[in-house]
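note to self: the first set is below, dont mix up w the second
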Amino acid sequence: MMHYALVSDLMTREEFAERVAKKSESLGGVVDEVTAAMMVVDDLGRSHVKIGDIPKAEAGIVSFFGKILSIEGPREFQREGEEPGVLATIVFGDPTGTTKTTLWDEQAAAVGELFVGSVVEVIGKPRFGRKEVSFVALRESAVEIVETKKPPTSEELTAPFVVKILHLSPVKEIVKKNGDISYLQEMLVGDESGTTRLVTWSPENFSDVDEGASVSITGVVRKEDDGLVEYIAQDTAVVTPHPTPVSVLTIDAGDVEEGQMPVVTGTVVSTAEVHTFTTRRNVASRVRNIKIRGEDGDILSVALWREEADKLILAGDTVEIINAVAKPSRFSGLELSVGSGSIIRVTAGEEVPAEISGRVVLRSVGLTLENADGVYVLIGQNLPEPGMRVTVSGMLQGVRLQVLEGWIEPADAGSILARFQ
């Protein structure tokens, strides 16, 4: 009885079978054993989930109804030092999303009994944050699913992928379960249609590429899943400089529309404190809300998540946001969500030498130097202490004052002597 897997942590198989028998008896025997088992599972709080909720499911095992959208395999593969194995992949869908599962050996060989378009009930172990489940069991179902989300698609581009490199993330070292090490690099790229994410497992192919470069890449695969598009540069990818600069779709904060993924520019008008919280999987996370203004004065809300929330973003900064989709906010208007696969950065303005006098104040953004002309954030080593009145020499960029030559504090009122530090 496959439904026992959903409650195996709550009772023994014998206890479950007894409950199923009692449930069927209480209903006068009008339901079959499978239906009675599903009702017992529901009574124990382990009801079916929608496919769209699988990536955030807290339970270690879930059950769902899904229409079979595609079947790949079965096909053989070679295990080192062992007999060949067999695997198959099935994609399921419902109106809320799609998910994938991989079957191995005897289970994979049995997919010949399944058909695209049929609806099945599946029990699997979700992989948090991913649209995948580890297969446990399935059975045919009489449930009807008329419409589903589109299944994921993958195709190798026949023409070179011509883009501008907007952001290069550091290379990540990935340790596999067998101890092997792989290297992953993520990039944000763009062209006249907007921005997207590009990943590669062969970062050496991009070792000579800098941010801002326009490149032509062959050996790229386009993947689309539920409207989200990203690209993968294969191991065989060849990267060459593009002879002409690539223009990237850039939109002012006041002109952003839902569903777009351009580079968004604007001026920060307000910033909130970083809010820390614990996710439903007991993982610490953080978010910071800011507002940016477009040239026409319209205000756009922006939510910064995790590492993006830690960046020093100040009121008055001009910023650009890359690869963040605009969605309706919980309150009114649109909001950009900046986190996984997107970034915010301060647009580098002109850096000029400056000597500024004022009072040192400790604020949430750090030490600031304040006078009648404005508030400047002090950056550097050996900074003056809060409450001191000083003259600081350094390089000014926007409201950031990089302290290079030190600071001067009058020794006493009316004295021309000063102390350098």
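second set (the one i keep forgetting abt)
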Amino acid sequence: MKVSVLGAGTWGTALTILLSNNGHEVTLWSKLEREVEALKKDRFHVPNLPEAVLPENVHVTADLKEALLSPELVVFAVASPYVRATAKEAAPFVKKGQIIVNVGKGIEEATLDTLTDILKEEIKDADVAVMSGPSHAEEVSRGIPTTCVVGAETKATASIIQDAFMSETFRVYTSPDIIGIELGGSLKNVIALAAGIADGLGFGDNTKAALMTRGIAEISRLGIKMGGKLETFAGLSGVGDLFVTCMSKHSRNRNAGYYIGTGMTMQEAMDEVKQVVEGVYSAKAALKLARKYDVQMPIVEQINLVLFENKSAKAAVTDLLLRDKTMENNSLEW
């Protein structure tokens, strides 16, 4: 296939390597001229993917019109704060019925739109899908076995994307639950901040396990209210992605949380990570969604207080532990 990957960050670069190794003709686009020139010259992404070499047959460009000339598949690997602007810019060059798979994770704070919502709104008549799961770019780029799930409007579209990405090291499942996949991938970043904060405070495995377990409960409650399926939140884009993002040394959200737990401000932590920390951008949106759908999300509430209202991380953990007594699952009967 002819495939265009929009976004030459770590994830876009890793997927470009995967797709090229699968035999596809890949064009990698970046808006940043300096990034394009560096990738053309060095063929690897410094400093975040130093071991991952970009194949010589990958075409790298800063010309969006050129990147969208005639691809069979467009991979949208743009960081969430820039998805709408990039989609607006790309729209005039996208053909009707174009398959676009979003691989970014986030919720737009101002509108509460998911990234696929934004793509559908800005690029009319495109066939928009999503791919998510426990998949750090640092490992995918090196061929470490990984699994993801693709959500699409039709089984046919999901199968096309599945076939494009599948390899002996990258297994892809399919699902009709686009909203569930999107929410799992976006909201787990907020919980990962909490897990990192717990690490930064010097707490142990018990604390992190509690945050992860109660975190997926919060994500599931909201997701089901918004039309997602429980099975999705128990799957790769829910529990799977939450686990890897809360536990991994590669997780920018967990690492940013860690720095906050040690006493840094939100901005200092983001500067230290040196990459887009999606959970910071999704935290306010998650809280707004919780209020809109009348869903209790105490971890999300406390993270917002820590990030944006200068509440101490330790006080936030204490307040979570001292909440009113309740059942673990209100749907169970004695």
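remember for set 2: The first strand starts at residue 2 and ends at 6.
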